[in-house]
């Protein structure tokens, strides 16, 4: 209960701080819509020219509109700030407090996303109205519930991976190279740039089981496609997602504990 109370206070604090920068976040969210919309136009042009794609136009419209929302809901920016706190010794104050620095990271992550969600939902709704019957979303409440579960699991994977990378600052002076590499790899392998459903069969067999799929593409697959019709079905998909989450959480916990043992920042 104490940790839950602390989380509530940290969450409220982060929401308040984020709202002070709502204008900047509005511009940021508008910018985040540009790449998915551009990708949508490219693939729609391919369909119009007769390209044999395994999905229809309605799927593409819904997919790329959801990319912005799901990408925002599953994003994590913890690695940069965690690494900075390790390097400059700011981590010390969390080590003597009853609350963990990771609890603050989760509160910051969730609090900022609440504000972003308030901003981006009206933008997506306006685009959906403009597109009219070209977008088709399921009305089944069960499908939306499974989608929400998949999004939460995906967000957990991203956060755990970020903690793992940020914790490398215990041994590396600069982890920006790792962060930049992740920023390049993730959009490609997660389906943010090209839907994984459009991958050639040989590559699709690999992308179907790799972890980045479950950080973005899989929640949208659950919502937009028939999961039972995919390889392994719905149960296998969620089993893989939970399995990768367990691997990332275990990896983050292991790297963090090893790093704390060798922590020698100023004042530690």
Automatic annotation (TrEMBL):
UniProt entry keywords in alphabetical sequence: Membrane, Transmembrane, Transmembrane helix
Listed transmembrane segments: 30-48, 60-84, 114-132, 144-172, 184-212, 232-256
Lineage: superkingdom: Bacteria
Pfam families (alphabetical): ABC2_membrane_6
Keyword Plastid: no
Record protein name field: ABC-2 type transport system permease protein
Originating organism: Beutenbergia cavernae (strain ATCC BAA-8 / DSM 12333 / CCUG 43141 / JCM 11478 / NBRC 16432 / NCIMB 13614 / HKI 0122)
């Amino acid at each position: 209960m104490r940790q839950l109370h602390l989380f509530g206070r940290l969450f409220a604090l982060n929401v308040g701080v984020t709202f002070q920068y709502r204008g900047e976040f509005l511009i940021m969210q508008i910018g985040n819509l540009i790449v998915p919309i551009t990708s949508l136009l490219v693939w729609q042009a391919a369909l119009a020219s007769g390209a044999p794609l395994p999905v229809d136009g309605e799927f593409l419209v819904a997919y790329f509109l959801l990319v912005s929302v799901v990408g925002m809901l599953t994003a994590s920016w913890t690695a940069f700030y965690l690494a900075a706190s390790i390097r400059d010794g700011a981590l010390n104050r969390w080590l003597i407090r009853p609350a963990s620095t990771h609890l603050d990271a989760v509160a910051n992550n969730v609090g900022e996303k609440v504000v972003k969600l308030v901003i981006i939902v009206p933008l997506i709704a306006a685009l959906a109205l403009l597109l009219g019957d070209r977008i088709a979303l399921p009305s089944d409440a069960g499908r939306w519930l499974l989608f929400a579960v998949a999004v939460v699991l995906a967000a957990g994977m991203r956060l755990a991976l970020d903690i793992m990378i940020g914790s490398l600052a215990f041994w590396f002076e600069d982890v920006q190279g790792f962060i930049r590499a992740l920023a390049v790899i993730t959009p490609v392998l997660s389906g943010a740039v090209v839907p994984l459903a459009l991958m050639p069969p040989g590559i699709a067999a690999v992308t179907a089981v790799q972890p980045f799929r479950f950080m973005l593409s899989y929640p949208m697959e659950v919502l937009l496609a028939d999961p039972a019709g995919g390889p392994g079905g719905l149960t296998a998909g969620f089993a893989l997602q939970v399995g990768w989450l367990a691997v990332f959480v275990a990896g983050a916990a292991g790297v963090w504990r090893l790093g704390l043992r060798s922590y020698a920042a100023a004042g530690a």
